[in-house]
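Input (structure):
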């Protein structure tokens, strides 16, 4: 009788463990879907970032957005896209180094992700989920736990991207992250510094 009760209890424990594993798997899949790049994304590997451009975010338009200083003659580049990819690689890495210089931080090695969504709605879903996207107005954010910058292609500016890169650098540089207000002040300073250098301040 005791053995039968033990077997029954053990069977109940195993059933509970199986249920917990199933629910954990469901949660994992939902999280993976929430933070995954868009379907049809084009990926570009730079020295510091893996850039995922969603379908509809053309390479040439993205290159124009990050080529704010006009260092590259985009109209003179070949139409096959190979040189456009080089412009993107050089532009992203140059901006990252500019951010590090503005903060006076040196990172010996850094690898992060940059996911470019079509618009604010898709970026807001990352932060708030589907329930609040109607009122959300979030063109970009950095998620430290995924070491990923999410940004709206439609609204993106070099200053905005520099701001989020600053958050990424701060998060990687400090063992214990500074308070949120301090991080925002530093990121705001970086954005101001980059925009001043580009001559895009009002």
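Output (sequence):
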């Amino acid at each position: 009788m005791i053995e039968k009760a033990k077997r029954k209890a053990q069977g109940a424990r195993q059933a509970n463990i199986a249920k917990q594993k199933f629910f954990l798997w469901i949660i994992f899949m939902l999280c993976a879907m929430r933070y995954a790049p868009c379907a049809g994304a084009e990926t570009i590997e730079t020295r510091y970032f893996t850039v995922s451009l969603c379908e509809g975010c053309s390479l040439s338009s993205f290159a124009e957005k990050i080529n704010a200083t006009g260092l590259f003659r985009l109209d003179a580049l070949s139409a096959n896209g190979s040189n456009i990819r080089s412009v993107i690689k050089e532009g992203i890495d140059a901006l990252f180094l500019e951010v590090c210089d503005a903060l006076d931080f040196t990172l010996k090695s850094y690898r992060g992700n940059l996911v470019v969504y079509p618009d604010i709605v898709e970026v807001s879903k990352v932060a708030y989920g589907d329930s609040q996207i109607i009122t959300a107005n979030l063109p970009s954010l950095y998620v430290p736990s995924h070491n990923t910058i999410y940004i709206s292609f439609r609204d993106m500016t070099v200053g905005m991207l520099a701001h989020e890169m600053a958050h990424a650098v701060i998060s990687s540089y400090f063992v214990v992250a500074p308070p949120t207000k301090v991080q925002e002040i530093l990121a705001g300073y970086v954005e101001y510094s980059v925009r001043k250098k580009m001559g895009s301040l009002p």
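Notes: Residues 20-35, 72-76 have pLDDT under 50 and may be disordered. The longest helix spans residues 2-35.
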